[in-house]
Amino acid sequence: SRENFPDKSYGNIVLPQGNYEAFRIIIGSGEGRNWWCVMFPPLCFVDESKAEVEYDKVEEEI
Question: Name one Pfam family in it (predicted).
Answer without folding.
Answer: Spore_II_R
